[in-house]
Design goal:
The chain has 118 residues and is α+β, with helices and mostly antiparallel strands. The protein has two domains: 1-30; 34-117, Glutaredoxin. Helix content is 49%, strand content 14%. It has a four-stranded mixed sheet, with helices on both faces. The protein starts with a helix and ends with a helix.
Length: 118
């Protein structure tokens, strides 16, 4: 196999790996998330975090309103982030009490369903 073919095959594999979630969501779309009641969501994030970007896309795709505080640029964001124990971003807080650490669409959906039922 020529070096060009190996390079192209490598690029294809890397491209598939980087977009696997998008490919999976296209072939088998996740269920829509519905928010029927008032839920206040705060996203503690950074601009460079890939999982923070996925969380923003998840909220946008499901039309979920949220407030974002950058833990590096916002003093209030940094204070709140430390109050929740830090340890990485994103941190998602629903109604000031439910805390979700990291990008976890299933946990976000479950928390939203529980909060809208209360």
């Amino acid at each position: 196999m020529s070096k060009i073919k190996i390079l192209l095959l490598g690029c294809l594999v890397v491209g598939l790996y980087q977009n696997w979630e998008l490919i999976g969501n296209t072939l088998s779309p996740p269920p829509a998330v519905t928010v029927s009641g008032p839920v206040h969501i705060v996203l503690y994030a950074t601009q460079w975090c890939g999982y923070c970007a996925k969380t923003r896309k998840f909220f946008a795709r499901n039309s979920i309103p949220y407030q974002e505080l950058d833990v590096e640029k916002s003093e209030q964001g940094r204070i709140d982030y430390q109050k929740f124990g830090g340890g990485g971003v994103p941190i998602i807080v629903l109604n000031g009490s439910t805390v979700i650490r990291g990008f976890d669409p299933e946990a976000i959906q479950e928390a939203l369903q529980q909060k809208t039922l209360e």
